[in-house]
Amino acid sequence: MNENVSHEKKALQELLKANVALLNGRSEEEVLHGILLGLKALGFDRVRLYLLSFNNQFLLPKAHIGMDESFQVRRVVDDRPMQVLLQEKSPRLFRAEEVGPSPFGATEWICAPLLVEQNVIGKLSADNVFSQRPISEADCESVALFAAQAAAALAHNRLTDQTRQQEEYLSRLVSSSPIGIITNDRHGKVTLLNDRAKEMLGYSA
Question: Could you tell me if 59 and 123 are in contact, meaning their C-beta atoms sit under 8 angstroms apart?
Fold first, then answer.
């Protein structure tokens, strides 16, 4: 019991570090690497994160710790654990005798889906191929927590990218508009003046 409490406490401490990194505006790569470091600190030998391609046909390698050149693009049709995650949308402990051999040489490993609005966008996996430490149910819960954190970081990054793209699009639209556009704040101070408005008012563009 005390061992489980200690395990959960350590998991929460590592998650807190990842949260701080996300809130401090670190890059997606830095945040994901921090999440994987936190998960590895719980005692896993190797951790890896894949993202699904837009057509859900491929697993794209995104980040890892401890992997070799076998960490490559995989077809979902060839990845039985990913097929299970897509159906069940919950973390699972997989064993080679149940789903076939792992391409990474592990006899057992954990996979947890990355969920954004109940849509699976990838998976987080961990194993103990070197130490051969048995994987427990508490380990499954920890990987699920870190997978949720990774999914939140990816969703945040996508939303930020979308917002930036929309702002750039609107800026180009306003700038190139043949109609003069002027905006002001509640105090009447001009906050935006597009090129056409400058021409109409006699300012140089």
Answer: yes
Contacts of 201 (CB under 8 A, 6+ apart): 180, 193
The pTM (predicted TM-score) of the whole model is 0.70
Nearest to 80 by CA among 53, 99, 96, 63: 99
Q: Across the chain, which distance is largest between two alpha carbons, in Å?
A: 78
Which sign does the torsion angle of CA 11, 65, 55, 26 carry?
positive
Q: Is 63 exposed, middle or buried (0-12, 13-18, 19+ CB in 10 A)?
A: buried
pLDDT in tens, 156-178: 766 565 566 677 777 777 777 78
How many Cβ atoms are within 10 Å of 67's Cβ, its own excluded? 15
Burial class (CB in 10 A: 0-12, 13-18, 19+), 17: middle
The span from the CA of 16 to the CA of 81, in Å, is: 28
| Closest CA relative to residue 115, chosen from 75, 86, 84, 92 | 86
pLDDT greater than 50 at residue 1: no
